[in-house]
């Protein structure tokens, strides 16, 4: 079931979205060589508590994970791309780090993710990978207009990946959200234009293009959560929460985020 949100409810989701975006900007700026992933996790916990927000990840226990997830942010390094469980790992120059964060404030959820390169030793291939997911996200957002189809969004995202030479896994992708982190519909990162649900004002979606430099297959760590590229190639993941409105797509989690540095 898809719940259409009112303009006031979308505004309330945008309040949550601003906090999510600000938190990601803060933590990504702190992700320097020598910083332990658990430092970022504990800072995220402090920010969540100080804001009076509720983590969508803490105690999260879906069918695919070895739940419950007892952290408030997903931190995925290099070949890890989704559901990265924070652990005792010290970041190194040139690491590719994805931060994925979702909270609820006053009953309304927002979800976003960014991928950054730690330090100064950026591999141009990693920069190109990250930039491709950002372009794909922009393309998917541009396609999220009233009267369009969900397949238009998926096709726009997937076309960017294909044009850049990346392979797309359609198993994990975007999703609806609002009162909870995961609602209908599923938004695949590849699809066929003109197919699928008709997009209507009031739909709120998390769009999240992700892929690897190599394989489109995933393997799971022994922690039961962290998903990595099957061939060990580096990965990237970019995500915004958006609303479909009469005036066009509205980004609810906007924030400036560095790629390198």
TrEMBL record:
Binding residue positions for a divalent metal cation 1: 100, 111, 239
Entry annotated with the keyword Ligase: no
EC number, UniProt record: 3.4.11.18
Gene Ontology cellular component terms for the protein in this record: cytosol
InterPro entries: Creatinase/aminopeptidase-like, Pept_M24, Pept_M24_MAP, Pept_M24A_MAP1
Similarity comment text for this entry: Belongs to the peptidase M24A family. Methionine aminopeptidase type 1 subfamily.
Protein name as it appears in the record: Methionine aminopeptidase
Organism: Mycolicibacterium sediminis
Gene name linked to the record: map_3
